[in-house]
Amino acid sequence: MFKKLFERYARAIANERERESFYKLFCACIATLIASLVLTAALIVCVFIFGSESEPTNIFVAIILLVLLLLWLSAIVATFILLILLGFNYKKALSRAPSMGEPAETAKLRRQMSDPAGYLYTYFFPDEALRAEADGIRKSNTTTYATVSAISGIIAIIAAIFFISADINGNSLEGYAMPVAITLLFAIVLPFSLLLTRRLKDVESRQKIQLENNPAYAKNLELFTLYTDFYKFKGKIYLIFVAVGIVASWVLAVLFPSLLWSVLPLLIIIIGLVINILLVRGLRAKAEPIEREIDKQYAARTAEQTATVQSGAKDTANAEITGKTEITSFAESSDGTNQSTDGGHTAELGAKQGVGEGNDEENI
Q: Which residues cross the membrane (predicted)?
């Protein structure tokens, strides 16, 4: 049923049995998530219909609300547990060392999915020193961002609970719970996010100068520019939807302070999130061919460097062999000369001895 959604994840797992197991868990997650969304919509509709009454006059309505609430909580808990299991097992599979005979594309996809930002940095930052610096900043920013998000989330929940329970002169302020919570969440997280990206922008600008000055990295520059242009406008569309949702939530809260109509603008934010996901998919569709070209160029450069090194080593070995041969020839010729010299000395000595003996005979 969900094989099209799972296709990208399936390519990162080589083992057939393991892939089938992950697919079943993935389907369970999607099913419980859909059930959670449907039950959430049903609860909102029921609250809008019966929320005007302080107490349900019909016991049947109360039972329906209670059953929906229990089912909703069960679906939320089940989805949460299944997502944790799926994430843990999938991360474990992605971090596993490549098996024997595993396709190179599978190993590459695993690396891409286990650390998407780190994977992209190999293309954005050919300079290893700048890449290490950028990666260190990114990891530090991620930790800080997660901490700030958690703290702001807790503050937003506390504020929402306060407005839900608040009662001024018999008037409920439930309608303000949602806009206050969302406003606090984004008002805290967004400035921190902008501050954290400043350090990274400095490293990116230095790397961009290197890419522009080196023709060998033309494709890297093309990919870098593609992402930069995307985040100038398309990457900010989601923030526009969030801003519109917050404003709409405040308007509904002012108009209906004692009702939960201010929850409806969440749909605007969800629509913005879906649009952002589709836009990112389009970006990746344009980026992947460029990445493949960069991989080919890198492989060609690596092969050329390897061939150069091997050629140099071969020339060195040949030079050593030639040198040894010359030394051997020189040694052999030296031995021959020495032998000839020794033979001449021997003959001369023999002649002298012969002359000496002849003179002795004459004297006698």
A: 21-50, 62-86, 145-164, 176-196, 237-256, 262-283
Q: Which helix (H) or strand (E) holds 50?
A: helix 16-50
The pair of structure tokens assigned to 118 is 């780190």
Alpha carbon distance 236, 296 (integer Å): 33
DSSP assignment of 220-289 equals HHHHHHHHHHHHHTGGGHHHHHHHHHHHHHHHHHHH-TTSSGGGTTHHHHHHHHHHHHHHHHHHHHHHHH
DSSP state of 13: -
pLDDT in tens, 171-206: 788 889 889 999 999 899 988 888 888 888 888 899
116 phi, psi to nearest 5 deg: -60, -45
Could you tell me the two tokens for 53?
Answer: 């009454």
Which amino acid type is present at position 243? A
* Cβ burial 245-270 (10 Å sphere, 16+ → b, else e): bbebbbebbeeebbbbbbbebbebbe
- What residues contact residue 174 under an 8 Å CB cut-off, 6+ apart? 163, 164, 257, 258, 259, 260
Mean pLDDT to the nearest integer, 305-332: 62
Q: How far apart are CA 225 and CA 211, in angstroms?
A: 11
Q: Given phi > 0 = left and psi -120 to 50 = alpha, else beta, which region is 99?
A: beta
Asked if 272 contacts 219 with a C-beta cutoff of 8 angstroms, the reply is no
**CA 349 from centroid of its chain's CA atoms:** 91
Q: What is the CA radius of gyration of the chain?
A: 39
The pTM for the full model equals 0.64
